[in-house]
Amino acid sequence: MKNIDDKWRLIAIDGVAASGKSTTAKKLAGELGYHYLDTGAMYRAVALNLINNRIGKDDNYAVISSLETVDIKVECKNDQMKIYLGDEEVSEKIRANEVSKLTSQISAIPEVRRMMVELQRALVKSNDFIVEGRDIGTVVFPDADMKFFLTASVEERAKRRFAELKEDENVKTLEEIEKEIEERDLRDSTRTTSPLLRAEDAIRVDTTDMTVNEQVKHLTRLIHTEMRKESQVYAGE
Ligand code: DC
Fold first, then answer.
1. By alpha-carbon position, which residue is closest to atom 15 of ligand 1?
2. What is the domain extent for residue 29?
3. 223 Cα to the center of ligand 1, angstroms
4. Is the pTM of the predicted complex or chain greater than 0.85?
5. How many angstroms separate the CA atoms of 237 and 7, rounded?
């Protein structure tokens, strides 16, 4: 999509766990020619660094001190994003179940959030971006050009996660996954610092009955409509 002025565009996609944010954001980025930033991956890298250094989540001092030395690098190129801890690419490792749980716990720590928000703002300085997370439209980029908030029923989200499980993680039942998702939602939305919240101006999209392609189509349509409106105002029509 062409910019109607010199401004870089930013689209924020927030929402509950397993609501289809990542897949949708990635595909949208590909379709619109935007870069894609998955902010959850950055919190996950902080958690993986703690695991690598055998730092427990309850050792607040060690967790906060680890932020001084952790070396997180992110490469965003269109719909591809790679994340590194030091020289090691950890894009796959951060998806492990153990990392997911710890991430949700440590992402409540204000110092962790402060550092991530700073990094995110620095990364998204130039270029059109689709940024996906939990607090993008509320805290990180409250002036985003467009904001979406994705939801889906917990049953549907558990089914999606279940289908994604790798063979070695396949010991879990659907009910266990549903419970884990509910716990994460509760933790993410009740923490004091930047809880998961829909920005007032975010468009809510319930993806329960949508396939990924339908989600992408739906959001693309909404974005095009908004951009058309903007260009009409810009052209003084
Ligand atoms: O989107 P995800 O599942 O990769 O996110 C992992 C965890 O990181 C999730 O439990 C909430 C947290 N997170 C956050 O607090 N703020 C963000 N902007 C992104 C993720």
1. 107
2. 7-34+131-237
3. 24
4. yes
5. 20
